[in-house]
Amino acid sequence: MSMASSGIWHITYLDMTIRILVALLLGGLIGFEREVNNHAAGFRTHILVCIGSATIMLLSIYGFGDFAKELNVRMDPARLAAQVITGIGFLGAGAIIRTGSYVSGLTTAASIWVVAAIGLCVGAGFYYGAALVTFLVLVSLFIFNKWEKYLLRKFRKHEMSIEIYDRPGLLGELVEKLSEQGIQISKMSVQPNDEKEERKRTVLVRFNVKVPQADRMVRAIDYITAFEEVLSIELPAFSGYSKAASS
């Protein structure tokens, strides 16, 4: 093996420092958006994932450069990078939370996974690919997120749970308040709440609803909580909304 070919397995301290700092910057940009929106994995988590992936990529390519000159040694720069892609799924899974039929944290888990890919790109010196992916991720998180909420809100069904004291006619009054605000109910279930020991019997009512506008849902919730028999309302799709009715 010639000296020229063996030189590809070595990197200067300056170049290594630049790659780590670029990974910190790109990971921080995506993590900042997650932090602003109060997600489980935020600014520091994304930075750590990105620079960690870049470091592993650097180690995979250059960490064993001293062995490149040895006979019968074959270098594989992707050997450690492949383990990052597999292992990062465990970290992403920790950000996923399920509440009833509503699942949150999928976007954050995906952002962690793509930040790991960005870090690997930076570690390999693939700056253009890393910068392009970072730009597209930010567009997806900032712009597509608003577009999705604006256009798809009326097509999606959300689960709404209301805990109430069992009173004849109350359920019909709640449905009427929702209908007045243009909220469509596609499915409803009622089950006794055996977890609490109350003098009055309580039930848990679950609705699958379509919400045309967020402000209408807010008004409907205000009307519903005005009932003395309503104990609490939960609407996880609205950023984990939970409200206890005042007694």
Q: Strands, helices and their partners?
A:
Layout: H1 3-6, H2 13-36, H3 43-62, H4 79-93, E1 97-99, E2 102-104, H5 106-123, H6 127-152, E3 157-165, H7 170-180, E4 184-192, E5 202-210, H8 214-225, E6 230-235, E7 241-244
Antiparallel strand pairs: 1-2, 3-5, 3-6, 4-5, 6-7
Helix pairs in contact: 2-3, 2-5, 2-6, 3-4, 3-5, 4-5, 5-6, 7-8
Please give a quick description of this structure.
The protein contains eight helices and seven strands; from the N terminus they run ααααββααβαββαββ. The protein is an alpha+beta fold.
What does this structure look like?
- The chain contains 8 helices and 7 strands.
- It has helices spanning 3-6, 13-36, 43-62, 79-93, 106-123, 127-152, 170-180, 214-225, and strands at residues 97-99, 102-104, 157-165, 184-192, 202-210, 230-235, 241-244.
- A 5-stranded antiparallel β-sheet has the order 4-5-3-6-7, covered by helices on one side. A two-stranded antiparallel sheet has the order 1-2.
- Helix 2 (13-36) packs antiparallel against helix 5 (106-123) and helix 5 (106-123) packs antiparallel against helix 6 (127-152).
- The chain is elongated, with a radius of gyration of 26 Å.
Determine the number of helices (DSSP H or I, runs of at least 4 residues): 8
Shape: elongated
Major sheet: order of its strands?
4-5-3-6-7
Overall number of strands? 7
Percent in strands: 15-25%
Counting structural domains, the number is 2
Sheet having the most strands? 5 strands, antiparallel
Give helix % range: 40-55%
- Indicate the multimeric state: single chain
Distance between the ends: 82 Å
Structure class: alpha+beta
Low-confidence stretches: 1-5
The ordered H/E elements are HHHHEEHHEHEEHEE
| CA radius of gyration | 26 Å
Q: What is the mean predicted local confidence, pLDDT?
A: 77
